[in-house]
Amino acid sequence: MKLQRKNGLRATALGALAISGALVLTACGSDDNTGTNTEGGEKTSAASNIKCDDAKGQILAAGSSAQKNAMDLWVKNFQAACSGVEVNYQAIGSGGGITKFTQGQVAFAGSDSALKPEEVEESKKICKSGQGINLPMVGGPVAIGYNLDGVDDLVLDSTTIAKIFDSKIKKWNDPAIAKLNPDAKLPDSAIQAFHRSDESGTTQNLHKYLSEAAPADWKHDPKSKSWLAPGGQAANGSSGVASQVKQTQGSIGYFELSYATSQSISTVKLDTGAAAPVEATSENASKAIAAAKIKGTGKDLALSLDYKTKAEGAYPIILVTYEIACDKGNKPETLPTLKAFLNYTASEEGQKVLTDAGYAPLPAEIAAKVREIVPTLS
Question: PBP domain spans which residues (predicted)?
Answer without folding.
Answer: 55-349
